[in-house]
Design a protein that fits this description.
By secondary structure, the protein is an alpha/beta fold. It is built from 14 helices and 14 strands. It has one domain: Amidase signature (AS) domain (Amidase signature (AS) enzymes), CATH 3.90.1300.10. α6 runs antiparallel to α14 and α7 packs across α14. The protein is globular. Keywords: Hydrolase.
Length: 512
């Protein structure tokens, strides 16, 4: 493709942004140099088109509406059959709509990506199909996945199946709801601040955020490379464990997997119980001032008492930075990081080796400007504050936050040296009322992001965390979160399975 060359006006804009002064002679010289350099861009484009680019396969899909989509949870329905045999044979799986399924449009909850058709399955989708799963569709997620509630998607709110006036949790909102109402067996979710665990907790299902880098993110739309996770969701712990065993392990493409992790073997010890294990109640995860609801805390403590009755030892432990300090760290990393990578970097950013999706970068780069005013207030708040920070503060505060992460990690690791797992409420309060799109911006953003206190810290430290329904408060599901040492995902699932066994089958939503 022949590329247009920059004009003098283009270079004057660039020079102004960098603080340069150009006279006419310098301008002509730089324009000539750009012409030569851009010829290399054209060569790369020709090579990419001949060597790498491919056409999307033909896959059929439908868009359910009205009574066929009562909770607003489906983006599209498909029927992509996997291998005849495998650990997921006979299981139906829905894919969060920030993950590429070749030949099936994706929107990532946003008009800024709506209509893009990937040419290749994400690694996790390939692994699910190879394991025998049937991909039955794409689930609605929040606008660019930047909300813990479920009212920001361009397609409209995803409603909670326990109370349609309330949030289902986000950003993997549709995935959680479709499991809760048993329209699918399993779902793929994504998690940068709690987006697997939060909707699982509020919708009454099981969700697992894997150890950072355990599951390849290849082919999922990024927010911020250091906190991006994908993972399994389901009604039962065993199904989630099987799915994690299928999708985990290095793929050789994802820069997040620098340690090249092996696949998990969660099933092997899943039913070993908790006798002899030491469970630490994380002090800072309960009774959070001005946030926690006492009934939620009580439900989780009651669930832990059932584990204690099974032979676990229970105590209290502290990680002083959990809570406000950890959230300050996450706020800086997510704001600067998302502005730099997801927005200015059109999803993928630069400066690391590994997998890139140039087609989605180009499509999103154009569409996010075309539909800029339709972006959610959460995304626009990040864009504006992040742009200011990167331009005026030069990214230094992102660097400061990243340099503090080892101390937060050390505090959790120290707690996990005393106890095998840490437990706290997944969400400190039950599902909140849906917020209207025209609500005041402050209320809109607050109710989209005010529930991350217990979940987001483990995205920046990378510890695995499982949420499981632990009863009800005010008639709505309460989630219990189990945090394990890094790469001990099987341990978190083992504790969840022990609780699931003594708890019994969790009820379905009343109208499901």
């Amino acid at each position: 493709m022949s590329l247009p060359r920059p004009s003098k006006a283009d270079f004057l804009d660039a020079a102004h942004d960098h603080g340069y002064t150009l006279d006419d002679t310098q301008m002509e010289a730089y324009l000539g140099l750009a012409d030569t350099t851009l010829s290399s861009y054209e060569t790369i484009d020709r090579l990419y088109q001949s060597e790498i680019a491919k056409q999307p396969p033909v896959r059929h899909f439908t868009k359910p509406e009205g009574d066929a989509n009562p909770y607003g949870a489906w983006y599209l329905k498909t029927a992509i059959e996997g291998a005849e045999e495998g650990p997921l044979a006979g299981k139906t799986v829905v894919i969060k709509d920030n993950v590429s399924v070749a030949g099936v449009p994706m929107a990532n909850g946003s008009l800024s990506l709506d209509g893009y058709v990937p040419s290749e399955d994400a690694t996790v989708v390939k692994r699910l199909l190879a394991a025998g799963a049937t991909i039955v569709g794409k689930s609605v997620c929040e606008d660019l996945c930047f909300s813990g509630a479920s009212f920001t998607a361009a397609s409209g709110p995803v409603t909670n199946p326990w109370d349609s006036s309330r949030n289902a949790g986000g950003s993997s909102s549709g995935s959680a709801v479709l499991i809760a109402v048993e329209e699918v067996d399993l779902a793929l979710g994504g998690d940068q601040g709690g987006s697997i665990r939060m909707p699982s907790a509020w919708s009454g299902v099981v969700g697992h955020k894997p150890t950072y880098g355990l599951v390849p993110y290849t082919g999922a739309f990024p927010i911020e490379r250091t906190i991006d996770h994908v993972g399994p969701m389901g009604r039962h712990v065993r199904d989630v464990a099987v799915m994690l065993d299928v999708i985990s392990g290095a793929d050789g493409l994802d820069s997040r997997q620098k340690d090249q992790p092996a696949p998990t073997q969660c099933l092997a010890g899943l039913d070993d119980g908790v006798a002899g294990l030491k469970i630490g109640l994380l002090q800072e995860g309960f009774a959070i001032d001005g946030v926690s609801e006492a009934e939620v805390d009580a439900a989780v403590r009651a669930a832990v008492a059932q584990l204690e009755a099974l032979g676990a030892t229970v105590g209290t432990v502290s990680a002083p930075w959990h809570g406000a300090v950890a959230m300050d760290m996450w706020n800086v990393i997510a704001t600067d990081g998302a502005a730099y990578q997801m927005l200015q970097g059109n999803g993928y950013g630069m400066n690391v080796s590994g997998y890139y999706d140039p087609e989605i970068m180009s499509y999103f780069g154009a569409k996010r400007r075309e539909h800029a005013d339709a972006l959610s207030h959460t995304v626009r708040a990040v864009a504006l504050t992040g742009h200011y920070s990167l331009k005026k503060l030069h990214g230094a505060y992102y660097g400061k936050a990243r340099m503090l992460v080892p101390e937060l990690t050390r505090q959790y690791d120290a707690a996990l040296e005393q106890f095998d797992v840490l437990i706290m409420p997944t969400m400190p309060f039950v599902a909140t009322l849906l917020t209207a799109p025209d609500a005041p911006i402050e209320a809109y953003v607050r109710t989209a992001l005010n529930m991350l206190t217990n979940t987001a810290p483990f995205d920046i430290t990378g510890h695995p965390a499982t949420t499981i329904p632990a009863g009800f408060a005010a008639g709505l599901p309460v989630g219990m979160m189990i945090v394990a040492p890094r790469m001990k995902d099987a341990l978190a699932l083992r504790v969840a399975r022990a609780y699931e066994t003594v708890r019994g089958e969790f009820p379905k939503p009343p109208h499901a």
